[in-house]
Specification:
alpha+beta, four-stranded mixed beta sheet, four-stranded antiparallel beta sheet, 13 strands, flat
């Protein structure tokens, strides 16, 4: 006589084992996906990319760590550089040593030592007129014979990665400021986050013409 109850138990046992295997397989796949996301985010955060820019009207040739590059007018390119010391030889043959440090993924290599402008803005829930932290950054700058007053900083070093306050900028040459940002403000009653962007001189003049002033107005 066939004991159907035992057969049913064996079938249920097999199904349980099969289910366990499927769960283990799916868990492993999920773990690998999450690991890939973590590694991807980490690579983005610790990016080794450096932007090289040529805002001039001529093609330039330069070397970085003895490797020769050519960059067309009004063009930029990205180089992957490890942390540490590097050597730039500019189009005039001037040899310059610079050091790349951590968290400088939007740093600028400037072979022509052209002038750029770093602009800082505030994402805040208070009136910008009352934003004293941002106001402390206001200064008068001169660019191509014109004067501008605001949270501006001129830079023209061969290698620049941070503002004068020691912060990296969040928006590169070809990125725009965001209209809004999303943050976790659970434990804060006041929001005041400063973020910076770097501009080519020509782009700055187009975007900040309203900030041009007569220096005598500040007296």
């Amino acid at each position: 006589m066939i004991d159907w109850s035992k057969i049913q138990e064996r079938d249920e046992f097999k199904e349980m084992n099969l289910l366990k295997k499927r769960i283990k397989t799916n868990f492993l796949r999920l773990f690998l996906v999450l690991l890939g996301v973590v590694l991807c985010v980490r690579c983005t955060t610790d990016s080794s990319l450096v932007v090289v820019d040529n805002p001039s009207d001529r093609t330039i040739t330069f070397t970085v760590d003895e490797k020769v590059y050519t960059l067309d007018p009004k063009e930029s390119m990205e180089l992957s550089l490890a942390l540490g010391e590097h050597t730039l030889t500019n189009p005039s043959g001037k040899r310059i040593t610079f050091t790349k440090q951590e968290y400088e993924e939007k740093s600028l290599l400037n072979p022509l030592e052209e002038t750029y402008v770093i602009v800082t803005t505030a994402y805040t829930d208070s009136n910008k007129e009352e934003n004293f932290l941002l106001e402390q950054m206001f200064q008068l700058i001169e660019l191509n014979g014109r004067y501008y007053y605001g949270p501006f900083q001129l830079v023209n070093a061969p290698y620049t990665a941070r503002t004068t306050f020691g912060d990296p900028w969040h928006y590169g040459l070809d990125e725009d400021f965001e209209d809004r940002i999303t943050i976790n403000a659970t434990h804060s009653t006041s929001i005041n986050i400063r973020k910076a962007k770097i501009y080519r001189a020509e782009d700055f003049e187009k975007n900040y013409a309203d900030y041009e002033i007569d220096p005598s107005e500040l007296n």
